[in-house]
Design goal:
Elements (H helix, E strand, L loop, with lengths): L2 E7 L5 H12 L6 E5 L13 E7 L1 E2 L3 E7 L9 H12 L3 E4 L7 E5 L5 E8 L6 E7 L10 E2 L3 H6 L5 H10 L13 H15 L10 H17 L5 H20 L2 E2 L4 H7 L14 E2 L9
Parallel strand pairs: 2-3, 4-9, 9-10
Antiparallel strand pairs: 1-5, 1-6, 3-5, 6-7, 7-8, 8-9, 11-12
Helix pairs in contact: 1-2, 4-5, 4-7, 5-6, 5-7
């Protein structure tokens, strides 16, 4: 089955330039890349070409939108991010490609110099629409009007797998009594596992983490401590085991903060005023958010 890719370029590349760059991306000859404009006569295209590229002109901060297909017989079919990075280097232009998150404006930009950073791409209501890159997480030379800022909503959208929480949920399901609603720790356990996983990964894929989201994760751990007394004994044992596993990993990924500097940084209150769990007195080093 062919592999599809969607790229958008800053420069208005000629078909010959696109064919040459795509040949380098996929390790084929330039003659094996079929490039055609979207409104070209379908009968004039070489549909048997190993790599097919259909492009159209766009307006605004970007100039070309490319739909690519690499046929099964193309041996090197890398992921979209790698194709974008290769194409940017080969064609000498900044290339955008869609991010995995649900936000329609969520994109990545790859520059000819090797930078890959998140950007927000907005389409106007005009016909045809204007393509505007309003912000980026790092300066992009070919997008000088883009405001450089962090994308906190993207980090919130990330949903890494949570096998510990899933295993708890499956094991606890048959143990709940059938006498009505009951307190559910699954949501709090899931978000606690997420922050541990993201911490262990070096805060991938964004490479940073909002301070307010980190505080919310610590508050979820607070809820796990409070909810235990309201659970059936069998469920509580399962929850305690799951939380203990995650807590051990959390400790390995953090450093002791006996002075409570993190408490004051996250809450704005002096440490010791509230009775807080021990997880509040450990901190990532370095912290993954911008200094306050």
């Amino acid at each position: 089955m062919p592999t599809g890719y969607n790229l958008i370029t800053v420069d208005a590349l000629a078909p010959e330039t696109m064919a040459t760059a795509l040949a380098r991306c996929f390790g084929v000859a330039a003659a094996d890349v079929g490039v055609a404009e979207a409104d070209a006569d379908p009968g004039s295209r070489n549909w048997a070409a190993p790599v097919l590229c259909t492009y159209e002109a766009v307006s605004g901060d970007l100039a070309r939108s490319l739909d690519l297909y690499a046929q099964d017989r193309v041996a090197d079919r890398p992921p979209e991010s790698e194709v974008a990075a290769r194409f940017a280097r080969a064609a000498g232009t900044t290339v955008l490609f869609p991010a995995e998150e649900a936000y329609p404006s969520a994109y990545w930009a790859a520059t000819p110099q090797g930078l890959v950073t998140r950007v927000r791409l907005e389409l106007s209501d005009d016909e045809p629409p204007l393509y505007t890159v309003g912000s980026a997480e790092a300066p992009v030379p070919q997008l000088p009007r883009a405001v450089v800022e962090r994308f906190a909503e993207i980090v919130r959208e990330q949903r890494p797998p949570t096998p510990v929480a899933e295993a708890f949920k499956a094991s606890a399901a048959p143990l709940w009594p059938d006498d009505g609603p009951h307190p559910s720790p699954e949501g709090h356990l899931t978000v606690w596992e997420r922050v541990v996983l993201q911490m262990e990964s070096g805060w991938a894929p964004s490479g940073w983490y909002p301070a307010d989201l980190y505080r919310e994760r610590l508050e979820a751990r607070d809820e796990l401590a409070r909810i235990g007394d309201r659970l059936p004994p069998e469920v509580r044992r399962l929850l305690d085991a799951a939380v203990e596993e995650l807590d051990l990993r959390f400790v390995r990924a953090t450093q002791a903060d006996p002075s409570g500097s993190l408490v004051e940084e996250l809450t704005g209150r002096p440490p010791g005023r509230d009775r807080l769990g021990r997880w509040w007195y450990r901190r990532p080093d370095p912290v993954p958010w911008d200094p306050v």
